[in-house]
Write a structure and sequence with these properties.
- There is one protein chain.
- The chain has about 475 residues and is α+β, with helices and mostly antiparallel strands.
- It contains nine helices and five strands; from the N terminus they run αααααααβαββαββ.
- The protein folds into two domains: about 200 residues, Four Helix Bundle (Hemerythrin (Met), subunit A); about 150 residues, Heat Shock Protein 90, CATH 3.30.565.10.
- It starts with 13 loop residues before the first helix and ends in a 19-residue tail after the last strand.
């Protein structure tokens, strides 16, 4: 079944809006997290780089300082062993004690920086060197002069070389530490950059998906807006045509009523007046034609009554007010079948006699217009009308087996006729809906549904009093 001519706009799909909001939120969250993570990586990299180079520089400076202390101690012990002046020897002895204290202090600082495990051998070699030097401090001048050179060659020089070798090894280890730290830092930087790249790629993917969904949603909304605008413009045009047509129909109705009153009732009343005058003259003259004249006058009077009744039914059927909707529709179908020769079937089901006047009038006029269209345009051999009512609505279906007609995508007839537009307006005024299902060669089915919930308070009892429309 085709959808009605004007469909109420649908509310936005909340699930789609929720998905779009979730997508935008996830994209923004990833962007914020990526920015925070990038800032954290940069700060951590700066701190790690500074710590690595600081340790390398401090360790190198400490090792260089110890190398200088070792070289200075070697020179002082040489001068001390070769000195022959007592005063100078005492000064050199004091310098050696100070140099030993400085060396031990520098060794403790180095151990604090790189650990006892790496400086164990260096401590052993330095203690051996300083212990050897301290053995010479109590020597008298003669002993220093006799054994000084040999002591330097046999004890001081080898031990100094051993300490220098350990210091060189520590310098190499410090350089290796720098290279290892650089490699570890580069690996950590690559891992962090990979994580950041993955987040950025996810953000791009989510952005593309959200953008595609947003563009599709906006396109659908735009298409829906264009469709609604076309429907509104078509409705506006048809309403304008309907207004003009209503004015024309009103004038035609007045013209027809005037012609009926003048041609039918006026002439019949004139003929009736003439017949009554002839009957009076025949009665005064005692003519035997009196009975014929009176029969003719009775026929004219009955004809006038029937004409007035037909005009009254055309304006407002009295059965609709006196007996209700179902008898009025039944009489309408009988008159239609007698007039057109089309077989009619009426299937009422539980129609309430206390329906509101507006509902009864709307249904009666809609059926009347549908039957007129069927008689004029369908070429049908039968018409079936079904009417049923429940607690919420009244539904009427008019179906025929005629030639059918083309229906556009709005569920309206493609032709220029205004009868369906008027029927739609009548039904829409009561909050109802009218649908049309048809195709060329397949007949036509017209359905109208009128809600009764809002009009329950306006139900009226079927009394014989005339309504305002009468």
């Amino acid at each position: 079944m085709k959808r009605p001519f004007y469909s109420r706009p649908k509310r936005p799909n909340m699930s789609k809006l929720a998905v779009l909001k979730l997508g935008f939120g996830a994209m923004v969250a990833l962007l914020v997290f990526s920015a925070v993570e990038g800032y954290r990586i940069q700060e951590q990299s700066s701190r790690d780089t500074a710590a690595i180079y600081q340790r390398f520089v401090e360790t190198g400076e400490q090792l260089s300082h110890m190398r200088r202390l070792l070289f200075s101690a070697s020179l002082i012990i040489r001068d001390y062993l070769f000195s022959k002046e007592a005063v100078r020897s005492a000064a050199l002895r004091s310098e050696l004690r100070d140099m030993a204290a400085q060396t031990r202090q520098s060794l403790q600082t180095l151990e604090h920086s790189i650990g006892h495990r790496q400086t164990g051998e260096l401590r052993e070699k330095i203690n051996g060197f300083l212990g050897t030097v301290e053995l010479t401090l109590p020597w008298p001048d003669k002993q220093r002069a006799a054994a000084g050179f040999a002591f330097i060659q046999s004890e001081i020089a080898p031990r100094r070389g051993a300490v220098s070798g350990v210091l060189g090894e520590l310098m190499r280890v410090n350089q290796q530490f720098l290279e290892t730290s650089r490699q570890q830092f580069a690996a950590s930087w690559r891992a962090a950059a990979t994580r950041l790249s993955i987040m950025l790629v996810l953000c791009i993917i989510i952005g593309v998906v959200v953008a595609h969904a947003s563009v599709g949603h906006v396109s659908r909304l735009e298409a829906q807006s264009i469709r609604r605008f076309e429907e509104v413009m078509q409705a506006k045009e048809e309403l304008a045509r309907l207004s003009a047509r209503l004015l024309q129909v009103q004038e035609d109705e007045r013209r027809r009523l005037s012609r009926e009153l003048h041609d039918e009732i006026g002439q019949t009343l004139t003929a009736l007046r003439i017949e009554i005058s002839h009957a009076r003259d025949a009665w005064l003259a005692g003519s035997p034609s009196l009975s014929t004249r009176l029969n003719e006058a009775h026929f004219l009077a009955e004809r006038t009554v029937n004409t007035v009744r037909d005009i009254s039914l055309l304006l407002r059927p009295s059965l609709l007010d006196d007996l209700g909707l179902e008898p009025a529709l039944q009489q309408q179908l009988e008159d239609f079948s007698r007039r057109s020769g089309i077989r009619c079937t009426f299937e009422p089901a539980r129609l309430d006699d206390t329906l509101p006047d507006a509902v009864k009038t709307c249904v009666y006029r809609a059926v009347q217009e549908a039957l007129n269209n069927c008689e004029k345009h369908s070429g049908a051999s039968w018409v079936r009308i079904r009417a049923f009512e429940d607690e919420r609505s009244l539904t009427v279906e008019i179906e025929d087996n005629g030639v059918g007609l083309e229906v556009n995508r709005h569920g309206a007839a493609s032709g220029p006729g205004l009868g369906l537009i008027g029927m739609r307006e009548r039904v829409a005024a009561l909050g109802g809906r009218l649908t049309l299902a048809s195709a060329p060669g397949e007949g036509t089915k017209l359905s109208l549904t009128i809600p009764l919930g809002d009009q329950a308070g306006s139900r009226t009892a079927p009394v014989g009093a005339e309504t305002a429309e009468n």
